[in-house]
Backbone:
């Protein structure tokens, strides 16, 4: 007989799936100016559901498919390339040549779809392949953040928040793997469904 703990993840994920159509339309702070302090940088990844979901998915995927230190490879790579992309975004904004939203936003949405799918499929990759996959998407997340954040403190806050979200994703993945493995695929699928909703919104906008 399943325990209460093993049923709770399913209840939460089912509720999340029911809310996805509305959540896919939300992006608090989109197109708005942001302060450039440490707290603003830390809060910034939480203001867009696309960024938040992708960072959670990286941690979830790592926890579901890797063991030991290898579990940190994808999160470290994402955070590092995110910072590189943000620095490029800051430089481009200061030069009056910000990254085109028509390219950045679809890639951010695509990252949510792809990272959700690899988590749902529990697709195990070699370390270098994992770095390449998450790094390619992290650069575009960084460009999006860098266009709105400036200053070292803001970027430090952004990377700190990224690590918090990765850790939450890894915690969720480890919990599901231990208590309710049957729901771990649904967790990834729910993220992928969000990414599909975001891409569909862009196509029909």
Residues:
């Amino acid at each position: 007989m399943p325990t209460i703990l093993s049923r709770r993840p399913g209840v939460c994920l089912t509720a999340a799936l029911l809310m996805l159509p509305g959540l896919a339309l939300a992006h608090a702070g989109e197109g708005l100016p942001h302060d450039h302090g440490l707290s603003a940088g830390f809060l910034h990844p939480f203001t867009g559901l696309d960024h938040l979901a992708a960072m959670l998915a990286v941690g979830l995927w790592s926890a579901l498919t890797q063991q030991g230190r290898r579990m940190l490879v994808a999160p470290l790579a994402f955070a590092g390339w995110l910072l590189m992309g943000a620095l490029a975004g800051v430089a481009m904004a200061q030069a009056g040549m910000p990254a085109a939203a028509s390219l950045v936003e679809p890639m951010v949405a695509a990252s949510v779809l792809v990272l959700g799918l690899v988590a749902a499929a529990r697709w195990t990759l070699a370390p270098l392949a994992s770095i390449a996959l998450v790094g390619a998407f992290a650069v575009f997340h960084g460009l999006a953040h860098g266009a709105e954040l400036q200053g070292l403190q803001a970027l430090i806050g952004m990377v700190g928040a990224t690590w918090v979200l990765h850790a939450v994703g890894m915690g969720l993945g480890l919990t599901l793997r231990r208590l309710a493995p049957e729901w771990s695929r649904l967790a990834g699928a729910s993220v992928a469904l969000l990414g599909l909703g975001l891409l569909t919104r862009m196509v029909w906008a």
In short: The chain has one domain: 35-204. Residues 1-33 have pLDDT under 50 and may be disordered.
